[in-house]
Amino acid sequence: MRVLVTGGAGFIGSAVIRHLVLEKGYEVLNIDKLTYAGTLTSLKSVEGKRSYRFYKIDICDAAAVSSAISTFGPDRVMHLAAESHVDRSILGARQFVETNILGSFTMLECAREYWASLERRKKEAFRFLHVSTDEVYGSLGPDGLFSETMPYDPSSPYSASKAASDHLAKAWARTYDMPVIVSNCSNNYGPFHFPEKLIPLTILNALEGKSLPIYGSGANIRDWLYVEDHARALDLIAERGRVGETYNVGGRNERSNIDVVKRICAILDDLRPGGGPHENLVRFVTDRPGHDARYAIDAGKLETELGWKAQESFETGIEKTVRWYLDNEWWWAPLRQGYDGSRLGLLKAGAG
Question: Rounded to two decimals, what is the model's pTM?
Answer without folding.
Answer: 0.94
